[in-house]
Amino acid sequence: MTFKADFVGKRKYFIALSLVLILVSLVFIFTKGFNFGVDFTGGIEISVSVPDIDMTVAEMRELLSAEDPSFAAARIIKQSPLIEEGSSEQRSRFSIIVNTSESDESVTSRILAGLESEGVTESNILSVSTISGYAAQEIRGYAWIAVIVSMALLLLYITIRFKFSFGVGAIISLIHDVIIVMGFYSIFGIEFNAPVVASLLTLVGYSLNDTIVVYDRIRENTKKMRGKTIETVVNTSINDVIVRSINTSLTTFLAVLTLFIFSGEVLRPFAFGMLVGVIVGTYSSLYISSPVVIEWLKRAENRKHA
Description:
Elements: H1 11-31, E1 35-36, H2 38-41, E2 43-50, H3 57-67, E3 75-83, E4 90-98, H4 104-114, E5 125-131, H5 133-161, H6 164-188, E6 191-192, H7 194-224, H8 230-262, H9 268-287, H10 289-305
Parallel strand pairs: 1-6
Antiparallel strand pairs: 2-4, 2-5, 3-4
Helix pairs in contact: 1-6, 3-4, 5-6, 5-7, 6-7, 6-9, 6-10, 7-8, 7-9, 8-9
């Protein structure tokens, strides 16, 4: 199946759409902000088992809030049931995340007091993880450094393999992808934690791979279609690879969608980023990175003949 659509001719519409998405994303990022996880804010995460297998998150929050009103803002996740060793009895398992600078002993004792009526004792505390505010700030700083360094290395790689103009187009499309995906995290209030940074870096690699496929075809067609305008070459190249890109993106999307639905609360923030990222990354590799190359090459050609 061969496409003969005029993608390049409508590039202004695609760029306008991207600018709107970026603007909306930036507005939410700077006004609403992110729902940072304990990785980035500091705090205490306590995993506890409860005999009542049917207990809900709302019931758990109600019990804890009755003990201490500050627990009403805690993030509570119901995980898969726990089967005690040497017994077939199932128990509910909850992760309780509290953004606080208090000691873990103080928070744990109040949680135990709140769950005393449910028969929860100290032996039912499965794990306690504490991240200081300084450590959380350091993790957040290193996370952004990782994203920026990866962008710089990718620009160098694309410049060496193709041309600097191709590298600029790739980096612009990657920045475009990261901002829009981060905007979706802010809009929907999905927890932003360390696994989310991993999903952003994975997205960068996925989107770049798609972009390189388009760039390879542009380079190949530039030699085959000598005398043709750069718009014609790029449009032909996009039409050549669009079926491959859609098929790859669709299979990846279905796999990530399955992960998002069945992964549970722990992996869901990662899966959400990949879910949005697959769509945005495929779109940008076809409709954003290539138009940037067109404008850059046209200006270079005009300067050459000036």
